[in-house]
Design brief:
108 residues; mainly beta; six-stranded antiparallel sheet; five-stranded antiparallel sheet
């Protein structure tokens, strides 16, 4: 049986308070590759995950939602989610291209 969103959230807690850059299906998540965010919190959300991030330089908190995540791995300084139905960042929703082989999300 696959892990529940709450179990996944607990598994990725080591990324809390880490500063990170992000990629969604190989493309930069943030406006530029130079922007660094700090992960403030992680929680299970229905059939997905919710990460709250704040720019390391200060500013407003943003929410990153991952719908139906799978293939989650956490290594020192790196979170990878192999597949997801979609990822939303603010008001932008990212979906994988047909046959996409790159990981859905990488924070490192």
């Amino acid at each position: 049986m696959p892990p529940t969103p709450s179990q996944l959230a607990r598994a990725i807690e080591p990324v809390i308070r880490q500063c990170t850059r992000g990629e969604v299906w190989g493309a930069p998540l943030f406006a530029t590759r130079d922007v660094i965010y700090e992960v403030e919190s992680v929680s299970g959300l229905f059939a997905g995950l919710k990460l709250c991030l704040r720019p390391a330089s200060g500013g407003d908190r943003r929410v990153l939602k991952i719908a139906q995540p799978g293939g989650v791995t956490v290594e020192t300084g790196r979170l990878q989610i192999v597949h997801a139905r979609y990822i939303s960042w603010g008001r932008v929703k990212f979906k994988p291209a047909r046959g996409e082989a790159k990981p859905a999300l990488v924070l490192s």
